[in-house]
Amino acid sequence: MNERFDAESTTFSTSRKVLIVVENLPVPLDRRVWLEATTLKDAGYEVSVICPTGRGWDKLYEEIDGIRIWRHPMPPEAHSGALAYAREYGAAIWNWFRLASKVRREVGFDVIHGCNPPDLVFLLAWWHRIRGVRFLFDHHDVCPELFEAKFGKRGMLWRLMLMLERMTFASASVSIATNGSFRDIAIRRGKMKPEDVFVVRSAPQVEKFRPGPGNPDYRKGAGTVLGYVGVIGQQEGMDLLVAAVDHLVNKMGRTDIHSVIVGFGPHLEEVKADVARRGLADHFTFTGPLYGDDLLDALNVIDIGVAPDPKNTMNDISTMNKIMEYMTLEKPSVQFDLTEGKVSAGDAALCATNNDPVDFAEKIAQLMDDPEKGKEMGQTGRRRVMRELSWAHSVPPLLAAYERIFVKSGHPASVKNVTKVVQEAEV
In this protein, which residues make up the domain named Glycosyltransferase subfamily 4-like N-terminal (predicted)? Predict the structure, then answer.
């Protein structure tokens, strides 16, 4: 490979080529993947992406900001049963192989950057390994724990998830984890060497995610506005949030409250039905998915961010993007007592008794009664993001992970340059 690494700017005179594969969201809608892709592009890499269509991103091929994106029809999301998973992931795998061959012919790639779920991109990496392609595993979700949280059981499919996770780690030259808990899993359960695992936290770009007045229309005249942004699915605890608002309104008499729910997901209609059944329709606005300035218009107007994800084996060790977004916009938040949730939020969140909607409601009421405390918590959260947790702090470990994989593959790179990037990642 003909390349020259510039130690001062951490870019390359001729770019290395990366293929990112993601199954569960289109790009650039997947914000983590888009930040990774654009960061690599800015560092001199040539970046291609394979992802599904959907949510308005329906072109089968386009180039955005220098990133080449190949999309395939979105397979139906599996909700239960081995057959449903086989249909969804079988269609995805076929499209990965088909489109990767096209990318290989037209652009080429040195690294396959595979994002889970599912833990199946290693199959594509195996096929291309004989051509000298290395595999970097981007660990978004702990799939065995995700399965258990989604279906409330273990069994044969859960054991299969464990096996596929182990094969994924065994196939990866390098992996990147979203937090320290995921890094521990890569080392302990995935048997990866510690020097091959890098923590690349998901975080907003503070340059674009700025506090502001928001759109007052979302307030609906309420004194306090709650905000939620994210997936509306089975494991996100939306039933607990609705129960908490029900307790606030109908048990505590806190009728001067409105909830703005931003997002989409397979259980949206069920959540709306629950709201209607409890007589809370006037206290909720469901915006659907929002992006860019529209998202900021909604989130900037809220007073309290809510993260009702229940405590389970998955959520306890997962970093919730919404917590990071509330903090970036100077919003205090309420969540349950989750290990990684507390690592992220620190003093910017109140933690309710796990999976207890009544205590969740009482924590919200505390912030309603003490807006000065909420303001102080919000400012603390933004300072924490700016000093430690913004995307700018994830760039050095991401680039260090790529330095590591290219060094392991035998491509030219000086020890001095690699050491510099790794040292930046540890600062």
Answer: 32-200
Q: In angstroms, rounded to a whole number, what is the distance separating the alpha carbons of residues 227 and 398?
A: 31
Inter-axis angle of helices 395-408 and 415-426, to 10 degrees? Answer: 150
For 72-136, where are the alpha helices, taking DSSP H only? 82-106, 121-129
CB-based contact 235:266 (threshold 8 Å): no
360-397 tens-digit pLDDT = 999 999 999 999 999 999 999 999 999 999 999 999 99
| CA-to-CA dists, residue 248 to 86, 173, 243, 326, 361, angstroms | 43, 51, 9, 21, 6
Distances (CA, A) of 219 to 230, 327, 329: 19, 20, 17
Residue with tokens 């030219």: 412
Q: Report how far residue 326's alpha carbon sits from residue 287's, in angstroms, rounded to the nearest whole number.
A: 17
Distance, in Å, from the CA atom of 211 to the CA atom of 154, rounded to the nearest integer, reads 43
CA distance 185 to 85: 24
Domains and CATH numbers, the chain: 5-202+394-426 (3.40.50.2000), 216-389 (3.40.50.2000)
The β-bridge relationship of strands 67-72 and 61-64 is antiparallel
From the number of C-beta atoms within 10 Å of its C-beta (0-12, 13-18, 19+), residue 389 rates as buried
pLDDT tens-digit profile of 37-62? 999 999 999 999 999 998 889 999 99
Do 234 and 202 meet the contact criterion of CB atoms below 8 Å apart? no
- CB atoms inside a 10 Å sphere around CB 310: 19
